[in-house]
Amino acid sequence: MGAQSAGPLVVGVDSSTQSTKTLVVDAVTGAVLARGQAPHTVSGDAGGKESDPRQWWQALGEALAQCGEAARQVSAVSVGGQQHGLVTLDAAGAPVRPAMLWNDVRPAPQSERLIAERGGAAAWADRVGSVPPPAFTVAKWAWLRENEPAAAAATTAVRLPHDYLTERLTGEAVTDRGDASGTGWWASSTESYDAEILAHVGLDAGLLPRVALPGEAAGTVHADHLPLPKGALVAAGTGDNMAAALGLGLRPGQPVLSLGTSGTVYAVSTHRPADPSGTVVGFADARGDWLPLACTLNCTLAVDRVAALLGRDREAVEEGGGVVMLPFLDGERTPNLPGASGLVYGLRHDTTAGQLLQAAYDGAVFTLLKALDRVLDADAAPDAPLLLIGGGARGRAWRDTVRRLSGRPVVVPEAQELVALGAAAQAAGLLLEEDPAAVARRWGTARGAEYEARPRDEAAWERLTATLADGEPLLRP
Q: N or C: more exposed end of the chain, with fewer CB within 10 A?
């Protein structure tokens, strides 16, 4: 292993909803020397999604053990984690209850009430940078105080998932501006915790971690029983979206479209975002800039479901026809139609199953590209290549649909595990005293297959726009 490494080694961690992944990476070349992965479980029903944070810690240990001797030679570590989760700890540092995860929709009433009670959507966007959806931690804390007051009263520390792991590694209560910007109680206008919002939801600022500056260490490894050297540097870590942006080495204005179970579009910006419509959440990034992002709920899973209903392979699409599908099978977040179901319009005798499947792809991509128009700054190049990531990026039908509806060239990076790579780049940046995005660019993580631009299919775009507008009474029951 030593002969393969040109420089010191770092570990990047991706603690996601379903599993924890670890990569041991050469800090100079970006070569991945070892990897590990261990699962966690998610429980809950009726909209609730929860996990025991101790599972994440156990999975981290298992994943690091799979990395073998390489993990024992690292000089720095960083954790990227699922955003928004509410981790409540007691005085002994043990979880008071399972963590409420990002996709727990029970706090929807609290989200609506908080928006109204604190001046409305425009006031939240101006102050916090985002209009807090149910995913945001502030809504989850409000839900907990209302529904489980004893658990809220027993809580002496509130953490995000990545903070919990960083604190167990270092003994220090530290977060970063990127992940903190998804709480709803960190204000992008002041880049600090908002005392009035915290008072409104009955949360003492003393229960929250310190927000480290970009490039600042959280501490050093002090935890026992992990195959990591004691004293290795630990970076502040960040949220998974911010880590993926670091992993791609994004420059301002480079658009990213991620095709997974849910879809996301984002770009690094030098301008603080504040979208009163709530379409764009105004995240901070992990470096000192901003990461405006929009998320749709219905992406690859919805299209795969349509393919299954039609009895077709997911790639068996056909061009032509005028059928339109809005595949909002799970309700939708962007546009904000939580009660929506799938809508099909324009069926004819000559409509084929392949055309109907293509319409599902079109509908899923359309909502993402429509949101991208809000994500990108006016000074972003309209013909900049779209970086296409996520599981869908490997599918020809997805790539072709994105090209046809965007009119942009597309690049599909070869690099996988971008969250863990971004965390590794943050650790390497801390160790080498470099900009972590520049580290990732040196590693060449955004290199991949290039697909030239096609003329945008304006007719399909207009059909989708009209169907979304005219169908709103059906989509908003």
A: C
User: Which pair of tokens denotes residue 223?
Assistant: 């935890």
Separation CA 360–CA 325 (nearest Å): 5
E strand or H helix at 89, and its extent?
Answer: strand 87-89
Smallest CA-to-CA distance from 183 within 238, 128, 236, 146 is with 128
Weakest mean pLDDT among 38-52, 120-134, 231-245, 408-422: 38-52
Taking the CA atoms of the chain, what radius of gyration do you get in angstroms?
22
pLDDT (tens digit, 9 = 90+) per residue, 199-251?
Answer: 999 999 999 999 999 999 999 999 988 999 999 999 999 999 999 999 999 99
The rounded distance, in Å, linking the Cα atoms of 85 and 88 is 10
pLDDT tens for 149-177 read: 999 999 999 999 999 999 999 999 999 99
- For tokens 């991945």, the residue is 32
Cβ atoms of residues 289 and 253 within 8 Å: no
Q: Is 368:344 a contact under the CB 8 Å cutoff?
A: no
Residue 471 burial (CB count, 10 A): 18
Please tell me the predicted confidence (pLDDT) of residue 383.
Answer: 86
| Token pair in block for residue 189 | 């206008």
> Rounded CA gap, 248 and 241, in Å?
11
Torsion of Cα atoms, 374 then 377 then 381 then 385, to 10° = -50
Q: Which two tokens stand for residue 392?
A: 């869908």
Residue with tokens 């603080």: 272
As annotated, the active-site residues are: 240
**pLDDT band for position 2 (50/70/90)?**
very low
E strand spans, 279-375: 281-284, 290-296, 324-326, 343-345
Specify which residues 132 forms β-bridges with: none
Report the candidate in 228, 229, 246 with the shortest Cα–Cα distance to residue 237.
Answer: 246
327 touches 306 (CB < 8 A) = yes
Q: For helices 418-432 and 240-247, what crossing angle results, to 10°?
A: 70
Contact 428, 376 (CB under 8 A): no
Q: Report how far apart, in Å, the C-alpha atoms of 459 and of each of 190, 354, 404 are.
A: 44, 18, 11
Measured CA to CA in angstroms, residue 419 lies from 20, 170, 249, 319, 389 at distances of 11, 21, 12, 35, 11
Beta bridge partners, 337, equal: 332
Residues 6 or more apart in contact with residue 69 via CB below 8 angstroms = 1
Does position 183 have pLDDT exceeding 50, yes or no?
Answer: yes
Give the model's pLDDT for residue 378. 79
Give the Cα separation of 114 and 184 in Å (integer).
10
* Cα 417 to Cα 254: distance, rounded to the nearest angstrom: 19
Please give the mean pLDDT across all residues of the chain: 95
pLDDT at 103: 85
Q: How many CB atoms lie within 10 A of CB 359?
A: 27
